[in-house]
Amino acid sequence: MIGNSSCGVREAGAFGTPVINLGSRQTRERDRLVQDSENVLHVRDADTQNKIYHGLELQFGKRYPCSKIYGDGNAVPRILKFLQTINLDEPLQKTFCFPPVKEWDISQDIDHILETQSALAVDLGGTNLRVAIVSMRGKIVKKYTQANPKTYEARIELILTMCKVAVVDAMHLNCRILGVGVSTGGRVNPQEGVILHSTKLIQEWSSIDIRTPISDAIHLPVWVDNDGNCAALAEKKFGHGKGVENFVTIITGTGIGGGIIQHNELIHGSTFCAAELGHIMVSLDGPECMCGSRGCIEAYASGIALQREAKRLHDEDLLKVEGMVDLKKAESVSAIDLINAARLGNSKAEAVLRTAGMALGVGIVNILHMVNPSLVILSGVLAAHYQAPVQQVIGQRALTSAQSIQVLTSDLDEPALLGAASMVLDYTTRRIY
Amino acid sequence: MIGNSSCGVREAGAFGTPVINLGSRQTRERDRLVQDSENVLHVRDADTQNKIYHGLELQFGKRYPCSKIYGDGNAVPRILKFLQTINLDEPLQKTFCFPPVKEWDISQDIDHILETQSALAVDLGGTNLRVAIVSMRGKIVKKYTQANPKTYEARIELILTMCKVAVVDAMHLNCRILGVGVSTGGRVNPQEGVILHSTKLIQEWSSIDIRTPISDAIHLPVWVDNDGNCAALAEKKFGHGKGVENFVTIITGTGIGGGIIQHNELIHGSTFCAAELGHIMVSLDGPECMCGSRGCIEAYASGIALQREAKRLHDEDLLKVEGMVDLKKAESVSAIDLINAARLGNSKAEAVLRTAGMALGVGIVNILHMVNPSLVILSGVLAAHYQAPVQQVIGQRALTSAQSIQVLTSDLDEPALLGAASMVLDYTTRRIY
């Protein structure tokens, strides 16, 4: 039930129905009432759609214990008896008569929840290990970054130390940590909290139970998923994927990864290697990929692939064009230099990027023809660059019925951290009695 | 509950619990009992796993009304009173004392259901219009075939006529028709029973409500889905997909189609064009496809694609090799001639088939990397030919974690008809009170 009627505070409570109370009217009424039961979630300044949406998320599907505010079931005879005492010849005026107000308040307040309930998010990347305190609103309250150690022992020790520090800080920041979410490279079994098989970028990181040590140290529930899947979860909770039943996120960074949401849930597949979107092949031969195969979109369109081509052009002295600032040594030439060169009219750089955009676009068309999402979200550093070429390839090569799809660029700063946090924030507030 | 205890017939009935009674012991007991309630499904000759599996499918998730066989709740005082009348100094012998047997029998019998409950299946292909009576066991009891008319009016009229004839025949064959399932080429909205957009092979077949005219004429519920999806449903109910949570069916016939099962359900996608598996692209350029794009696996590996290559070789007089019977005119040269030529050592034909197998294999690897099924089922006339090459490409090009997948060849004769029937047989027997 949603609204500002006192039914929500009284009658709905008797049935255990979840209620969202909008505005301040029933807040005042509540002050006069004693039996304000825990079924009511107050959204006092219901000025933004977003706040009501949050409230709905928190209350949806819940059942509360029924409050017993209506006594022993003998109201009718009592009312009849009372009515008989009234002199109907005289005018009547409604007066309020409530029992005295109790001290405690067991109802919930959306502002209090949004401001204090938080998650600890851990992101294990090829280079960095990051921990953050993330609020229910998706605000990164505090962030910690360290180089990701090369060995299992050093890494686990650092994770636990950083988490413990963050938990102490959270208390001082008035953040109530509900649990820990971990985003990591590699293939993950989220049911068991185990990293099955890592990417080449993180060593000593296969067959690792990451849930147990963190849970033992912090005494909070722990969720784990692959970073591509976490990025999709971040879009679902805080980004363009909010309220979208079927969508796909593709991250174009150093590598290419992503996640697929179908019927509001991630597709994990039978051995947890679904949504390996970087390894969609768009060529029977094509360039070699780090996975050992050929023609994967990662081998055409990732940061590493573009850097490889930039270096090749630079080695042949074909990269620099008029207007470009001096380039550094070949080792530090990057995808961004290639993109700059193309913008300044370098036709060889343009050709590389055209092929990369085509490969990524064809890979995405393959996604459309397989799971038919209603939205594609590009994230990662190269997202803005690829949006137009991908939309163009879809127009040229997708089946008519799949061409109407939207391709958007993510506006989230930290998809991996926000996705890791969302596992905690979603699951711990989805209580069903 | 499953077993042969009389608890199933008595106590479970009182709670409305679904029971599967195995063997004949309780059948005999039943003859002596009057209150055999409808919660019991009898599987008398429980000799095959399959029959018990069918029984489980029928009973799973059901709730029955509670039978009131235990009277008014005053049994204890009555028993005590009775016990006091017994002379415990004399020996006691158990004797049975049941109320008289009633005439009617409201329990269910698995054999009766499997033999009589049936579906009407309609398959609308590019060439033929077929109708069949399909039993709960997946047996095609009777089949009717006509050329698929070219106009909407003639086609609808023929469908209705064929269905009406089949319904009359079904009665004489002791088949109880539960509903009509329609498998058709093109994109289908199964919720509405509407064909949104047809393939080029069936004319005047877009934006067609097929449910209403059939339902109006036959007075039975009607289900509709795309033929690729129906093939997947057929595998789920009657084929290799039985009990498999995530699998994919790929049909390699004139064209290439298929269906994806995830968490035991078809993926339809946001605009009902998921699982357009023939239009997975494995080349940035590649041969032209009927869909207007290039490099689709259908353009490499379908019957039409192989026939095109066979014709090309034949035109250049490069197809015939020693040992082949005389070939007909180029127009009638087929994919089978190409396969024969390759078997007899024609290296050009071999190369065409190698590329086709590679393209299909890479397309299937793309499926593995996207939805990670645990089983791939190949069906259609070319399935047996492609099984080995596909398995080989998976070994070479899939990620390690996806390589363990099984690739099987379907052993169903009529996937489209069986899948159409399965929509009826599954939904109508999945009653939940």
TrEMBL record, chains A, B:
Pfam families per UniProt: Epimerase_2 (PF02350), ROK (PF00480)
SUPFAM superfamilies hit by this protein: Actin-like ATPase domain, UDP-Glycosyltransferase/glycogen phosphorylase
Top-level taxon in the UniProt lineage: Eukaryota
MF annotations from Gene Ontology: N-acylmannosamine kinase activity; UDP-N-acetylglucosamine 2-epimerase activity
Residue intervals of the UDP-N-acetylglucosamine 2-epimerase domain: 1-83
Protein name in the entry: UDP-N-acetylglucosamine 2-epimerase domain-containing protein
Organism: Coregonus suidteri
